[in-house]
Design a protein that fits this description.
Strand 1 and strand 2 form a beta hairpin. This protein has a domain of 38 residues. By secondary structure, the protein is mostly helical. Helix 1 crosses helix 2. Strands 1-2 form a two-stranded antiparallel ribbon.
Length: 65
């Protein structure tokens, strides 16, 4: 019998990105290395929330308003 390496309650990287945006973390807070597939998935989740709330993050300063 194979063992699962991930718990069913473990968040996917995109979910972590959503949560990071809601927690006012910047893209620089992405916990994954750029060569890890999870890096782009985390960024995808963060970007989705940012696009839904475009007035919350100030790109020129790299900070939340």
């Amino acid at each position: 019998m194979k063992q699962k390496t991930e718990s069913p309650n473990e968040d996917l990287p995109a979910d972590e990105g959503h949560q990071a945006f809601r927690g006012r973390k910047t893209p620089d807070d992405n916990p994954y290395q750029e060569d890890d597939w999870r890096h782009s998935e985390w960024q995808f989740g963060w970007d989705c929330d940012e696009q839904s709330n475009p007035d919350l993050f100030d790109w020129p300063t790299g900070k939340f308003k």
